[in-house]
Structure formats: C-alpha cells, structure tokens
C-alpha cells in the first residue's frame, strides 16, 4: 500500500473511548533501524512472557536483508514496508510517520514508543507498561544543544 493510502487508513482509526468487546491495551514499540537490532537478545528477554501486551514494528533500510532473523524471534515478520532514510533529513520523519501509521491500524495500541537499533530497556516490561499506561504525559524530550547546531533562542 502506498504511504498516502497508509496515512489515510490510519487517520480513519476510530477514536472510541469504550469498545463493546474486551481488549487489552498494548504498547507499540516502533524500531527505526539501519540494519539488525543490535541488542535483540536483550529485547527478547524484555518481551518474554508479555505476549498480547505489545506490538512491534520495524522500519529498516530497504537494502537490509533480514534472512538471518530466526523464525522464532519476536522480531521475525515485524518489518513494515520501508524506504531509504538519511539521518536528519525529512525522509527520517516520513519513516517515523510510516511506523506510527502502521501502529495506529491496531486499535489495541494505546501507547507508542519510538526506538533505534541501539536502544535498550532500562526497566522490565511490566514496569514500563504500567508507567506508560498510567501516565497522562507525553514523553518527548527537547532541549537546546550548545553549539552551531543548537536552537537559537
């Protein structure tokens, strides 16, 4: 499906507060990677035993061949249709939008976490899940970086 169709479909996801059926709220873990998830064994341990409480989406470089990913891995089959990304360019934002749009198609996803291939979890799954689900805050980190690349205020 094209990006345009994907974004349209994800914008049509219902904004319903209550559903007429039981569903478990999930956290969507969205990995923006250049290649393999470097610390996948650590992530495997993190997710183990928490099936049904998370979704995983991977946007990797289109040239990356995932043939070495074991079929029993939680990362197998999680790759979304991807396009080339250059750090700091607009196509990086487009890749993030692609990840989010795919995650929005699952109505059980309630929280969304953007990660790189080098990120690691600092707490166990239940701690992170509980914190995210009980929080009403948006965790977007912004800061003024010293030097010529920082914001000019």
TrEMBL record:
Membrane topology listed for this record: Single-pass type II membrane protein
Q: Recite the UniProt keywords alphabetically.
A: Glycoprotein, Glycosyltransferase, Membrane, Transferase
Locations listed in the record? Membrane
Q: GO MF annotations for this entry?
A: glycosyltransferase activity
Its chief place of residence is: membrane
Tell me which GO cellular component terms the UniProt record holds.
Answer: membrane
**Keyword Glycoprotein on this protein?**
yes
For the keyword Transferase, the answer is yes
> PANTHER family from the xrefs?
ACETYLGLUCOSAMINYLTRANSFERASE, CORE-2/I-BRANCHING BETA-1,6-N-ACETYLGLUCOSAMINYLTRANSFERASE FAMILY PROTEIN-RELATED
The protein, known as: Putative ovule protein
Protein species of origin: Solanum chacoense
């Amino acid at each position: 499906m094209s990006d345009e169709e994907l974004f349209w479909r994800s914008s049509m996801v219902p904004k319903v507060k209550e559903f007429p059926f039981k569903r478990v709220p999930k956290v969507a873990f969205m990995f923006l990677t250049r290649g393999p998830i470097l610390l996948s064994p650590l992530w495997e341990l993190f997710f183990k035993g928490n099936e049904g409480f998370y979704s995983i989406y991977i946007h990797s470089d289109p040239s990356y061949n995932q043939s070495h990913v074991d079929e029993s891995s939680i990362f197998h089959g999680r790759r979304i249709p991807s396009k080339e990304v250059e750090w700091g360019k607009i196509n990086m934002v487009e890749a993030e939008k692609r990840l989010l749009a795919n995650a929005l198609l699952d109505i059980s996803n309630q929280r969304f976490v953007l990660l790189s291939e080098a990120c690691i979890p600092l707490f166990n799954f239940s701690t992170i899940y509980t914190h995210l689900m009980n929080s009403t805050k948006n965790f977007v980190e912004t800061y003024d970086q010293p030097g010529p690349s920082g914001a000019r205020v």
